[in-house]
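User
Take a look at the entry that follows and flag anything odd:
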Amino acid sequence: MTLRPVTALLVLSLLMPAAWAQRMYDSSGRALGRVDAERFYSASGQQIGRVDGERVYDGSGRQLGRIDGDRVYNASGSQIGRIDGDRLYSASGSQMGRIDGERLYDGSGRQIGRADGLRRMQMIVFFYFFM
């Protein structure tokens, strides 16, 4: 499963404090954007998504999916993955990535993103919906 970088920013916002803007970077240190409370912005400042409860939306208001406990679903309601500790799995059970501190790795161990002070739920949104 390949996800867009924009999708990754959405995953990152779920547990972000309202007064804190979180900067997000790809593996080379290039700014992808920021998470500001429940809203996601591109590096140019355009709003590209938001989280409302457990539901994740793109910048146009279209629902991308939802996170229910340790399960991740797309907009059609199909399970696209699950979370087990710091590891992320596809719906078929293969490991897609992992979280290690403030860094996010793909299934082959290659670093694909980072953010200072990143929280687990933010990493999940980043990985499943923006990568």
Observations:
- Residues 120-130 form the longest helix (11 residues).
